[in-house]
Amino acid sequence: MPALAAVDVATLDAELAWLARVVELRLAHYFAEGAPASPALPGALAPTPPLQGDGPYAAALQRHALDDTERLLMALALAPALRPALLDVLAVHNPTTQRPYTEFGGVHGGPFLPTGETACFLLAGDDLALRLSALQRLSPQGRLAQQDLLHVVSLPAQAPGAASALGQGVQHGLLTPGAGFVATALPGPALPPLAEPGGLATRVHSGLDWADLVLPAATLAQLEDIGLWLQHGRTLLDDWGFGRRTSRGHVALFHGPPGTGKTLSACLLGQRCGREVHRVDLSLVVSKYIGETEKNLGRLFDAAERDGWILFFDEADALFGKRTGVADAHDRYANQEVSYLLQRIEAHAGVVVLASNLKHHIDDAFLRRFHSVVHFALPRAAERLRLWRAAVPAMVTAEPSLDFAALAQQHEIAGGTIVAVLRHACLQALARGDAVLRASDVDEGIRRELRKEGRAA
Predict the structure, then answer these.
(1) Cβ atoms of residues 261 and 292 within 8 Å
(2) Angle at 170 between CA 82 and CA 21, to 5 degrees
(3) Which of 3, 7, 87, 123 could anchor a disulfide with 134, C-beta 3.0 to 4.6 Å?
(4) CATH number for the 381-452 domain, one of 2.30.30.30, 3.40.50.1700, 3.40.50.2000, 1.10.8.60?
């Protein structure tokens, strides 16, 4: 990963110092006795620092032609990741109510995280015209959101500082720098995870490699086909003109019992082809606010298409299961959301992977639209033996009575179950203070896992 240019460190230092000065001035004015009308910030009291050099961050600000206010908003959104203590002064409590100041906004309970209300306070104070202008800049229709520079992500209702259902809006959402902006402006530092568009997806990783996949040859061949699409699909569609005859994306269904490698395969497929994999949280897909689902999904798919992500929908049968009759308005809205999601998946010019433990729960009307259906079966004895041996840590010694070949023959279990068994046995070894893997601990781990699966131990 490239290192952040030294000149950009100076630029970021200057931007964050400028933000700290704006916070200081706004608070000083807010708490001053008999203060005149709120000054517009940034402005003469907090002049914008000149950009220093042409590193990635400075270049991104110039390329997008961000004005002073937009630069300040970007610094505010990045502050929790780059300088967490900078905004702690806004986490003070009102001595009268013994609660955080409503005017300051923010999410409490840890490092202060700025919301739209925080931005309005810094830019406008109690000036209504300035506040309305700030809200316009933060709007989903504003250029900051439209160009994936800055988003305001809705918070779950239980989050500290989140608004009630009646009060949710731009001012209550979390300020989040756009993934596209971060990728180009901050290519070097390992920033803490940033919220994805709409809060619907989370990037997933794996510390394993493609060689660690233990799957039947037929399954690996189907995964290779998806990899070919990722590597050569654009050439096939555009240069060879095949885009006139087929859709521009690839939709795959991964189905099979839990622990057979569906999520791992998606992660390693992305790793092998240089693509990020983002798992979509289906519990957040169907919003209780009419129209919110379409907007959030639109942003998610737009970001995935722009940055080449693989979108991974786990437990897809929960959303794409066999349909029943429409009993009430809730069912009609749910069907509308599913139809919209299916349309977006089909129109998406990228790879979408849907995972399910039970293929027969997926509606046949959906199955016909998938480009590939990949079965992840329980591993056979030879594959289970490979999994047993590969999962034992290098610093651990198995006692002589531990026969992995016999275990592989005797127990028809998935790779994920084997890892869970060895995790239990290794923890027992650590508790004893040795590095010996005992057969009795492995047997107990197998019994526990089989009981969890509802099978005879």
Answers:
(1) no
(2) 40
(3) 123
(4) 1.10.8.60
